Amino acid sequence: MIPVQLIxxxxxxxxxxxxxxxxxxxxxxxxxxxxxxxxxLEAITWAIWGESxxxxxxDVIYSGAKEVRVDFIFHNNQQTYxxxxxxxxxxTSILExxxxxxxxxxxxxxxxxxxxxxxxxxxxxxxxxxxxxxxYLRQGRADEFxxxxxxxxxxxxxxxxxxxxYDQLEERAKDxxxxxxxxxxxxxxxxxxxxxxxxxxxxxxxxRVELEVQLDKLQQQQAFDNIQLQSLQVVQHQRQSWEQQLxxxxxxxxxxxxxCDRLHKEQLTVQSQLADLETTLNQESEITTGYAEYQSLQSxxxxxxxxxxxxxxxxxxxxxxxxxxxxxxxxLERQLQQSQAQLEALxxxxxxxxxxxxxSPEVETALAQLATARNHLSHLDQLQMQVxxxxxxxxxxxxxxxxxxxxxxxxxxxxxxxxxxxxNQNRRQPQLQxxxxxxxxQIEELExxxxxxxxxxxxGQERRHFIERLRTTxxxxxxxxxxxxxxxxxxxxxxxxxPLCERxxxxxxxxxxIQKTQLEYEDTQGQFWVVREQMxxxxxxxxxxxxxxREISQQLAVYDTLREKxxxxxxxxxxxxxxxxxxxxxxxxxxxxxxSLQGNYAPDKQAELQQLDEYLQQLNxxxxxxxxxxxxxxxxxxxxxxxxxxxxxIKRQTQLAARKPELxxxxxxxxxxxxxxxxxxxxxxxxxxxxxxxxxxxxxSEQHNHLRQAVRESQSWQLRYQQFLSAQQQYPQLQTxxxxxxxxxxxxxxxxxxxxxxxxxxxxxxxxxANPVDQINALEQQIAIRRRELDEKxxxxxxxxxxxxxxxxxxxxxxQEQEQLQSxxxxxxxxxxxxxxxxxxxxxxxxxxxxxxxxxxxxxxxxSRLSANQLHxxxxxxxxxxxxxxSKKNAKLIDTLDILIADARGTRAYETYxxxxxxxxNFAIRLALAKLLAQRAGAALQLLIIDExxxxxxxxxxxxxxxxxxxxxxxxxxxxTVTHMPHLKEAFQARIEVNxxxxxxxxxxxx
Length: 1007
Fold this sequence. Notes:
This protein has about 1000 residues and is α/β, with parallel strands linked by helices. It contains 24 helices and 15 strands. The strands form 3 sheets. It has a 6-stranded antiparallel β-sheet with strand order 2-1-4-5-6-7, with helices on one face. The chain has a 6-stranded mixed β-sheet with strand order 8-12-13-3-14-15. Helix 7 crosses helix 20 and helix 10 (about 430-490) packs antiparallel against helix 12 (about 560-575). The protein is flat, with a radius of gyration of 72 Å.
C-alpha cells in the first residue's frame, strides 16, 4: 500500500487539509508536540479500518463541527484505490470504496459498512493489527524483543503471528474432548446398567409361559362354574316370579279387606246422619217461630244503628269546632302576654336611661381633663419628631467612635504580640546559629555516605554485568556439553562415523576419538563448574552490596529533610538580623497608639457628638414624660365613651316615650277580642246548633245495648233454620248412598274369596319347588375368588409382557449405545490429538520453527547492509535442560528462543555490544518481523511509518536511526518518519511540517 493523497475535513485537530504524497520517498512528518502529527497517521487508519485512538466514535469529529470526512487515495498491486469515510455526529458512519479506471473511479462499495470493510480487506490483504505491527514501527519499542526472556520472546512472536487463534482452537478442542469424555463415562454407566437388566430376560420368559398355563386352567374352571350358575339362576328366577305373584295377590286381598271395612264404616256413618236429619225435620214448627222473632229484633237494631251514626257524627263535629275556638283564644292570649312583656321591658329601659343621665356632670369634667392631656401629648410628639433624627445621628457617631477605639486597641494588642515574638526570636539567635552548624555537620557526613553509596551501586552494577557474562558463558558451556554428550552417545554405536569427516572408524581411531571427546568433555565440565563457582561468589558479593546499600539508604533517608531544615534555620537566622530596628519602630507606634487612646482620636467626630448633646439638652425632651402623657390620655378616654352613651340614652328615651301608649292600647284591644270570640263568633254559634241537634235525636246507648244483647241471644234460631233447610235437601241423597254402599260391599266379598283360593294354589307350588339361593351364593363367591385370581394372573402376565418389551427395547438401546460409545471414543481421541496439535508444542511451535529461518535470513540480510557484513544473528529454539540427577548423555532438550549474535571477534552476549551495534541489531530484527508479517498477510510491505518513539535518543542515536533508514530506503516505496526534534528533521530533504493554529492544524510540504 503506497499513499497517494490524503484529504481531511474536520478530523481531530484538522479543519480542512490536503496532503499529496506524490514524489515523496523518504519524508519526515515534523512539528511540535500536540500539533497533529500522529493525527495524519490516524486519519489513514480511520479511513481504511475505522480505527483510531478515540474511545467514542464521535470524538474524531473536530470540536464544534457536525460532520467528519477523510478521503485516502493509495496504490496497491498496480491498482489505484480511493477510500471515503464520513460520519455525522450522533449518526452512523458511511464508507465508500472505489477503484480507478480509465473512465474515472468506479465504486466497489458493498451493502453496508461491514460488507464494504470486508471488500477493502480482500483487496489490500492487511487488517489493522497486522498493519500496526508491520508498516507502523513504534520506535520506543525497538529493543523490546531483545530485552525479553526467551519464553517471552516466543509469546511476542506468537502474538505477532496471530497464533492465539490456535489457543482458542485448543481450548475448544479440550472442551469437546471433555464433553466426549463425560459422554463416554455416561454411556459406560448406562451400558453396565442395561447389561444387568438384560440378564433377567430368560427368567422373565419362563415366568410368562408358566403363568399362561395357569391362566388356561383357571379360565376352564371359571367357564364350568358360570354354566352351573346360569341354570340355578333360571330356577331362582322362576321361584322369584311366583313369590312376586303371591305377594301381589296377597296385597290385592289385603286391599279388598280394607275396602270392605271402609264400606262398613261408611254405612254406619250414613245411618247415623239419617237419624240426625229425621230429628231435625220433626222440629219444623218450633224452628220457624224462633226464626221470625229473630228477624224482628234485627230490624229494630238496624234503626238504632242509624241514630248512633248520626249522634257520633254530630258529637265529633262539635268537638272539632270547640278545639278550633280554643286555638283562636289561645293565640290572642299569647299576643296579649307578648304586649304586656314589651311594656314591662320599656319601663325597665326607662329606669336604666334615668340612671345614665344622672352621671352627666362627672363626664363633662373628665372631658375637659382629656382635652388638656391631648394638647400636652401633641406638643411632646412634635418634640419627638425633632429629637429622633438627632438621636440616630448621635448613635451613628458613637458607633463610629467605638469602632475606632476598638481598632486602636486591637492594633495595640497586635503590636504587643509582635514585639513579644520578635524579642523571643532575638533571644533564640545563638541557638539558631548552633543548630545551623549542627545540621551542616550532619549533611557533610551524609554527603560522604552518598558518594560511598554511588560507589556501592556502581560496584553492584559491575557485578551484575559480570554475572550476565558468566550466564552467557554458562549457556555456551551447556550447549557445548550437550553437543559433546550427543557426540559421545553417537560414538557408543559400534558402527559410528567420525564426527568430523563422517567416515567409518576403526577400533584404534574410535578409542582415540572417544578419549579426546571425553577429555574435552571433562575440561569443558571443569570450566562450567568454575563459572558456577564464580557466579555463586558474585551472588554473595551482590547480596553483601545490597545489604550495605539498604543500610546506607536508610541512613540517607533523612538527607532531604536535613537540607530542608538547614534552609529553614538559615532563613530564620537571616530574619533575626533586623529585629532591633523592627522593635524600635514598633515601640514608637505603640506609644502613639497609647496617646491616642487617652482621648485624642477622631476629634471632629467627638466635637460633633458634643454639639448634638448640647442641642438635645436645650430641647428638654424626655421619653418618660412622653410615656406619662400617653397614659394620661388613655386614662381619660372613658369620658368620651360615656358621653356617647348619654347621647344614645337621650335619643332612646324619646323613642320609648312614643312607643309606650301604643303598647297599652294594643293590650286593651286584645282583651276585648278574647271576650268576643267566646260568645259572638261563628264557631260558637255552630257549637250551639250541634248541641240542639243532639238533643233532637234522643239516642240512648243503654237501650241500644239491650237490643244488641237480644239479637245475639236469638241468633241460634237462624242457624237451626239453615240446618232444617239443609236436612230437607240431604235426606233423599243419604238414602241412595246407603243402598250403593251395601251393593259395593257384597261385590268385594266375592272377589276376596277368589283371591284366597289363588293364594292357596301359589303357596302349594312354592312348597313343591326347592330354594337354590345357598347354592347360587356359594357359586358366586367361588367365581369372584377365581375372578380376582384371574385378574391378578392377567396383571402379572401384562407386567411380564411389558418387561419383555422393555428388555427388547433395552437390547436395541444397548446396541445403539455401543455404537455411540465407539464413536465417542473415536471423537474423544480426535479432539485430544487436535488439542495437542493446536497447543504450544504443536502447530504453533511448528509454525514458529518454520518462520524463524525466514526471520533469521531476513534479519541477517538487513543486518549485513546495516553493518557492512560485520554482524550475524542466529535463533536457537532448543537447548539442553538442567538436571542434577540425570547424566549429560540423557539430558533433555527444552524449547527456548535464544538469539546468538556474532561479529568478527566471535559470538558474544547482547549486552557486550556497543549502542550503535545494539541499535542496528534491534532495528534489523524489528524490520524483518514487519516484512514477515506483511508477507504472511499476502501483501507487499511498501509503506513504512516510524513514529517518534526515538525522541529519547541522543544525537548519536538519532544519527544511527537516519543511517539505518537510508540503508533500507530502497526496500520501500514510501518511508514516513514522525518526530518533533529539529536536528532530526533537518536530515530529511522532504518534510511535512504540521503547525497548530486557531483554525486547526495546518500542513505544509517542503521538498
